[in-house]
Here is the input.
Amino acid sequence: MKSTKLSIKGFKALPIHTMKEENCTEIKNVKIEESGEKLVPIDTFPEKIVNQPEYFIQGIEGALPVGYLREGAYKRLLRAANMLPKGFKILVFDAWRPAKVQKSLYSKVKEMLKLKNPDATYSEISALAEEFIAFPSENENEPPPHETGGAVDLTIVDSFGIPLNMGTEFDEISENTHTRFYEEKIERGEKLSKEETEILLNRRLLFNIMEAVGFRNYAGEWWHYDYGNQRWAWCIGKGVSAFYGIAKPKFVWMKI
Ligand SMILES: [Zn+2]
Here is the structure.
Protein backbone atom coordinates (compact mmCIF):
# COMPACT_ATOMS: atom_id res chain seq x y z
CA MET A 1 0.00 0.00 0.00
CA LYS A 2 1.26 3.44 -0.92
CA SER A 3 2.10 5.45 2.16
CA THR A 4 1.79 9.19 2.24
CA LYS A 5 3.80 11.90 3.89
CA LEU A 6 1.46 14.72 2.95
CA SER A 7 0.26 17.05 5.68
CA ILE A 8 -3.33 18.32 5.86
CA LYS A 9 -2.12 21.47 4.09
CA GLY A 10 -0.56 19.25 1.44
CA PHE A 11 -3.78 17.26 0.99
CA LYS A 12 -5.75 20.47 0.53
CA ALA A 13 -3.21 21.90 -1.92
CA LEU A 14 -3.31 18.80 -4.13
CA PRO A 15 -6.06 19.21 -6.76
CA ILE A 16 -8.53 16.39 -7.37
CA HIS A 17 -7.21 14.80 -10.54
CA THR A 18 -9.39 13.98 -13.56
CA MET A 19 -10.93 10.52 -13.59
CA LYS A 20 -11.66 8.05 -16.37
CA GLU A 21 -15.08 8.43 -17.91
CA GLU A 22 -17.41 5.87 -16.31
CA ASN A 23 -17.87 2.83 -18.56
CA CYS A 24 -20.47 0.46 -17.10
CA THR A 25 -19.82 -2.28 -19.69
CA GLU A 26 -16.09 -2.36 -18.91
CA ILE A 27 -16.79 -2.33 -15.16
CA LYS A 28 -19.24 -5.25 -15.41
CA ASN A 29 -16.64 -7.24 -17.36
CA VAL A 30 -13.96 -6.98 -14.65
CA LYS A 31 -13.14 -10.43 -13.29
CA ILE A 32 -13.98 -11.09 -9.64
CA GLU A 33 -11.66 -13.36 -7.67
CA GLU A 34 -13.56 -13.44 -4.40
CA SER A 35 -11.29 -13.19 -1.35
CA GLY A 36 -13.92 -14.40 1.12
CA GLU A 37 -12.98 -11.56 3.47
CA LYS A 38 -15.69 -11.02 6.06
CA LEU A 39 -17.88 -7.97 6.59
CA VAL A 40 -17.23 -6.08 9.82
CA PRO A 41 -19.33 -3.39 11.53
CA ILE A 42 -18.05 0.17 11.20
CA ASP A 43 -19.45 1.45 14.50
CA THR A 44 -16.90 -0.16 16.82
CA PHE A 45 -14.29 2.64 16.70
CA PRO A 46 -16.34 5.76 17.45
CA GLU A 47 -13.19 7.77 18.29
CA LYS A 48 -12.44 7.79 14.55
CA ILE A 49 -15.48 6.63 12.56
CA VAL A 50 -19.06 7.74 13.15
CA ASN A 51 -21.95 5.55 12.00
CA GLN A 52 -24.85 7.58 10.60
CA PRO A 53 -26.99 5.13 8.60
CA GLU A 54 -28.92 7.54 6.37
CA TYR A 55 -31.17 4.92 4.74
CA PHE A 56 -32.15 3.45 8.09
CA ILE A 57 -32.78 6.97 9.47
CA GLN A 58 -34.86 7.81 6.40
CA GLY A 59 -36.92 4.62 6.72
CA ILE A 60 -35.79 2.88 3.53
CA GLU A 61 -37.14 -0.67 3.66
CA GLY A 62 -34.51 -3.27 4.59
CA ALA A 63 -31.86 -0.72 5.70
CA LEU A 64 -29.76 -1.63 8.73
CA PRO A 65 -28.89 0.63 11.69
CA VAL A 66 -25.17 -0.24 11.43
CA GLY A 67 -22.85 0.04 8.43
CA TYR A 68 -20.69 -2.93 7.39
CA LEU A 69 -17.55 -3.05 5.24
CA ARG A 70 -15.13 -5.78 4.21
CA GLU A 71 -12.34 -6.01 6.77
CA GLY A 72 -9.66 -4.75 4.36
CA ALA A 73 -11.77 -1.76 3.31
CA TYR A 74 -12.61 -0.98 6.95
CA LYS A 75 -8.93 -0.98 7.98
CA ARG A 76 -8.10 1.38 5.14
CA LEU A 77 -10.92 3.66 6.19
CA LEU A 78 -9.50 3.72 9.69
CA ARG A 79 -6.09 4.67 8.29
CA ALA A 80 -7.69 7.52 6.36
CA ALA A 81 -9.43 8.71 9.55
CA ASN A 82 -6.06 8.66 11.33
CA MET A 83 -4.71 11.17 8.80
CA LEU A 84 -7.28 13.79 9.81
CA PRO A 85 -6.52 16.65 12.22
CA LYS A 86 -7.00 15.91 15.92
CA GLY A 87 -10.67 15.51 16.82
CA PHE A 88 -11.82 15.22 13.21
CA LYS A 89 -13.56 11.98 12.22
CA ILE A 90 -15.00 10.16 9.26
CA LEU A 91 -18.80 9.96 9.14
CA VAL A 92 -20.27 7.04 7.18
CA PHE A 93 -23.69 7.52 5.55
CA ASP A 94 -23.83 4.08 3.94
CA ALA A 95 -21.55 1.12 3.31
CA TRP A 96 -22.66 -2.47 2.59
CA ARG A 97 -26.16 -2.41 1.20
CA PRO A 98 -28.78 -5.20 1.16
CA ALA A 99 -30.25 -5.96 -2.30
CA LYS A 100 -33.66 -4.81 -1.05
CA VAL A 101 -32.29 -1.32 -0.30
CA GLN A 102 -30.55 -1.10 -3.69
CA LYS A 103 -33.85 -1.92 -5.44
CA SER A 104 -35.83 0.52 -3.35
CA LEU A 105 -33.33 3.38 -3.91
CA TYR A 106 -33.21 2.67 -7.64
CA SER A 107 -36.98 3.01 -7.99
CA LYS A 108 -37.03 6.14 -5.80
CA VAL A 109 -34.38 7.82 -7.98
CA LYS A 110 -36.35 6.91 -11.11
CA GLU A 111 -39.59 8.30 -9.65
CA MET A 112 -37.84 11.56 -8.75
CA LEU A 113 -36.26 11.89 -12.20
CA LYS A 114 -39.60 11.21 -13.90
CA LEU A 115 -41.14 14.10 -11.93
CA LYS A 116 -38.28 16.38 -12.98
CA ASN A 117 -38.38 15.21 -16.62
CA PRO A 118 -42.01 14.33 -17.40
CA ASP A 119 -41.39 14.02 -21.15
CA ALA A 120 -38.44 11.63 -20.91
CA THR A 121 -38.88 8.05 -22.11
CA TYR A 122 -38.49 5.00 -19.88
CA SER A 123 -35.02 4.23 -21.25
CA GLU A 124 -33.90 7.87 -20.93
CA ILE A 125 -34.99 7.84 -17.26
CA SER A 126 -33.17 4.53 -16.68
CA ALA A 127 -29.95 5.88 -18.22
CA LEU A 128 -30.19 9.07 -16.14
CA ALA A 129 -30.93 7.09 -12.97
CA GLU A 130 -27.80 5.02 -13.40
CA GLU A 131 -25.67 8.15 -13.08
CA PHE A 132 -26.91 8.33 -9.48
CA ILE A 133 -27.48 4.72 -8.52
CA ALA A 134 -26.23 1.39 -9.80
CA PHE A 135 -28.79 -0.90 -11.46
CA PRO A 136 -29.96 -3.42 -8.85
CA SER A 137 -28.44 -6.35 -10.74
CA GLU A 138 -28.95 -9.81 -9.27
CA ASN A 139 -26.18 -11.23 -11.45
CA GLU A 140 -23.32 -12.16 -9.13
CA ASN A 141 -20.81 -11.37 -11.89
CA GLU A 142 -21.82 -7.70 -11.85
CA PRO A 143 -22.93 -6.76 -8.32
CA PRO A 144 -23.85 -3.16 -7.49
CA PRO A 145 -20.74 -1.69 -5.74
CA HIS A 146 -22.45 -1.28 -2.36
CA GLU A 147 -23.57 -4.92 -2.28
CA THR A 148 -19.93 -6.03 -2.18
CA GLY A 149 -19.00 -4.36 1.10
CA GLY A 150 -16.24 -2.49 -0.75
CA ALA A 151 -18.13 0.78 -1.31
CA VAL A 152 -18.62 3.53 1.23
CA ASP A 153 -20.47 6.86 1.24
CA LEU A 154 -18.88 9.27 3.68
CA THR A 155 -17.87 12.73 4.75
CA ILE A 156 -15.65 14.34 7.40
CA VAL A 157 -16.82 15.91 10.67
CA ASP A 158 -14.80 18.50 12.62
CA SER A 159 -13.85 18.35 16.31
CA PHE A 160 -17.38 19.53 17.21
CA GLY A 161 -18.90 16.65 15.22
CA ILE A 162 -20.16 19.07 12.58
CA PRO A 163 -19.89 17.85 8.96
CA LEU A 164 -17.48 19.89 6.80
CA ASN A 165 -19.11 21.92 4.06
CA MET A 166 -18.97 19.72 0.94
CA GLY A 167 -21.33 21.92 -1.08
CA THR A 168 -24.31 19.56 -1.30
CA GLU A 169 -26.25 17.13 0.83
CA PHE A 170 -25.48 13.43 0.62
CA ASP A 171 -27.55 11.92 -2.25
CA GLU A 172 -28.55 15.32 -3.60
CA ILE A 173 -29.37 15.12 -7.30
CA SER A 174 -27.54 18.07 -8.83
CA GLU A 175 -24.45 18.65 -10.92
CA ASN A 176 -22.36 20.10 -8.11
CA THR A 177 -22.25 16.66 -6.48
CA HIS A 178 -19.59 15.94 -9.15
CA THR A 179 -16.38 15.61 -7.18
CA ARG A 180 -14.42 17.92 -9.51
CA PHE A 181 -17.20 20.52 -9.88
CA TYR A 182 -15.16 23.29 -8.23
CA GLU A 183 -11.83 22.16 -9.77
CA GLU A 184 -13.49 22.54 -13.18
CA LYS A 185 -14.68 26.04 -12.32
CA ILE A 186 -11.07 27.03 -11.62
CA GLU A 187 -9.91 25.34 -14.83
CA ARG A 188 -12.45 27.44 -16.75
CA GLY A 189 -10.88 30.54 -15.22
CA GLU A 190 -13.81 31.29 -12.89
CA LYS A 191 -13.08 32.82 -9.52
CA LEU A 192 -14.38 30.88 -6.53
CA SER A 193 -16.20 32.63 -3.68
CA LYS A 194 -14.89 32.21 -0.14
CA GLU A 195 -17.43 29.46 0.54
CA GLU A 196 -16.67 27.68 -2.74
CA THR A 197 -12.96 27.72 -1.90
CA GLU A 198 -13.74 26.12 1.46
CA ILE A 199 -15.80 23.41 -0.27
CA LEU A 200 -13.01 22.81 -2.79
CA LEU A 201 -10.43 22.34 -0.02
CA ASN A 202 -12.75 20.05 1.99
CA ARG A 203 -13.40 17.86 -1.05
CA ARG A 204 -9.66 17.71 -1.75
CA LEU A 205 -8.98 16.65 1.81
CA LEU A 206 -11.51 13.79 1.64
CA PHE A 207 -10.40 12.74 -1.85
CA ASN A 208 -6.68 12.74 -1.10
CA ILE A 209 -6.83 10.88 2.22
CA MET A 210 -9.09 8.23 0.64
CA GLU A 211 -6.84 7.82 -2.42
CA ALA A 212 -3.76 7.66 -0.18
CA VAL A 213 -5.14 4.54 1.52
CA GLY A 214 -6.22 2.89 -1.73
CA PHE A 215 -9.87 3.89 -2.30
CA ARG A 216 -11.08 5.29 -5.63
CA ASN A 217 -13.80 7.91 -5.99
CA TYR A 218 -16.88 7.85 -8.24
CA ALA A 219 -16.61 11.11 -10.21
CA GLY A 220 -20.35 11.83 -10.03
CA GLU A 221 -20.54 11.82 -6.21
CA TRP A 222 -18.06 13.47 -3.85
CA TRP A 223 -19.12 11.05 -1.08
CA HIS A 224 -18.71 7.67 -2.86
CA TYR A 225 -15.50 5.61 -2.68
CA ASP A 226 -14.67 2.04 -3.69
CA TYR A 227 -12.07 -0.51 -2.70
CA GLY A 228 -11.63 -4.09 -3.94
CA ASN A 229 -14.82 -4.26 -6.05
CA GLN A 230 -15.23 -4.13 -9.83
CA ARG A 231 -15.42 -0.31 -9.98
CA TRP A 232 -12.21 -0.05 -7.99
CA ALA A 233 -10.39 -2.62 -10.17
CA TRP A 234 -11.55 -0.82 -13.32
CA CYS A 235 -10.25 2.49 -11.92
CA ILE A 236 -6.88 0.88 -11.17
CA GLY A 237 -6.80 -0.71 -14.65
CA LYS A 238 -3.77 -2.77 -15.76
CA GLY A 239 -5.92 -5.93 -15.83
CA VAL A 240 -6.34 -5.94 -12.05
CA SER A 241 -9.17 -8.21 -10.85
CA ALA A 242 -11.72 -7.34 -8.20
CA PHE A 243 -11.55 -9.35 -4.99
CA TYR A 244 -14.87 -8.33 -3.46
CA GLY A 245 -17.95 -9.82 -5.11
CA ILE A 246 -21.43 -9.91 -3.62
CA ALA A 247 -21.38 -10.32 0.17
CA LYS A 248 -23.72 -10.61 3.14
CA PRO A 249 -23.11 -10.28 6.87
CA LYS A 250 -23.51 -13.61 8.66
CA PHE A 251 -26.64 -13.13 10.74
CA VAL A 252 -28.03 -16.18 12.55
CA TRP A 253 -31.61 -14.97 12.90
CA MET A 254 -32.14 -12.54 10.10
CA LYS A 255 -32.51 -13.57 6.46
CA ILE A 256 -31.22 -10.91 4.06
ZN1 LIG B 1 -22.22 5.12 -2.79
Summary: The chain has a mean pLDDT of 95. DSSP finds nine helices and seven strands in the chain. Residues 146, 151, 153, 224 surround zinc ion (CB under 6 Å).
